[in-house]
């Protein structure tokens, strides 16, 4: 679930995780928050933090469990006013070395293998907690944020009889009939 294109990286080597587990509290810096805000289409990202526990889950797997919290500056889709969204997202992800992930991908016809989410790959012996937190933040963002009480109301303008698609034709017809001689008038010939 890690991605090199994401701007926040905090790698933890699996070999350095003690048997009792490891706890990490992370805070994204100003540069990382600005890059993530740009990537996610946010006005701003004044706060992004993660509190994560890493534990061994047997068979070379590592469980990452915790929370991602953030304040995301978005724009209301109804009123176009700025708003701040509070994000508090729980995460629980299993990581495994790449050969195990590939073996699970090959058994995709097996119902038992598909019962749970497949593990994410451990890349180069490490888990990137910054990228993981960034991905969970992006998944938690409301794609259509709305300020409380904001309601879309279409603009209803009074109907002006002169302002309709056929008004130009009516005006043309009126000017043509003014140019034509009236059917009741006779012309005298000499």
Task: Summarize the structure in short.
With 190 residues, this protein is of the alpha+beta class. It has helices at 30-40, 98-106, 111-114, 129-140, 167-179; strands at residues 11-13, 22-27, 44-58, 61-75, 82-97, 120-122, 126-128.
Describe the structure.
The protein has 190 residues and is α+β, with helices and mostly antiparallel strands. It has a domain at 11-140. It has helices spanning 30-40, 98-106, 111-114, 129-140, 167-179, and strands at residues 11-13, 22-27, 44-58, 61-75, 82-97, 120-122, 126-128. The strands form 2 sheets. The chain has a 5-stranded mixed beta sheet. A two-stranded antiparallel sheet has the order 1-7. Strand 4 and strand 5 form a beta hairpin.
């Amino acid at each position: 679930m890690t991605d090199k294109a994401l701007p926040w990286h905090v790698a933890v080597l699996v070999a350095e995780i003690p048997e009792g587990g490891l706890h990490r509290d992370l805070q994204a810096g100003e540069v990382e928050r600005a890059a993530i805000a740009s990537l996610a289409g946010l006005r701003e990202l004044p706060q992004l933090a993660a509190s994560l526990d890493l534990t061994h889950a047997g068979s070379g797997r590592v469980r990452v469990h915790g929370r991602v919290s953030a304040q995301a500056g978005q724009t209301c889709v109804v009123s176009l006013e700025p708003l701040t969204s509070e994000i508090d997202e729980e995460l629980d992800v299993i990581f495994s070395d790449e050969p195990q992930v590939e073996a699970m991908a090959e058994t995709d016809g097996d119902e038992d293998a598909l019962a749970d989410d497949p593990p994410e790959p451990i890349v180069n012996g490490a888990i990137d907690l910054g990228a993981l937190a960034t991905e969970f933040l992006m998944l938690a963002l409301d794609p259509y944020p709305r300020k409380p009480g904001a309601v879309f109301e279409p603009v209803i303008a009074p109907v002006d009889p002169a302002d309709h698609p056929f008004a130009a034709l009516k005006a043309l017809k009126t000017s043509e009939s003014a140019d034509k001689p009236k059917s009741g008038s006779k012309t005298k010939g000499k």
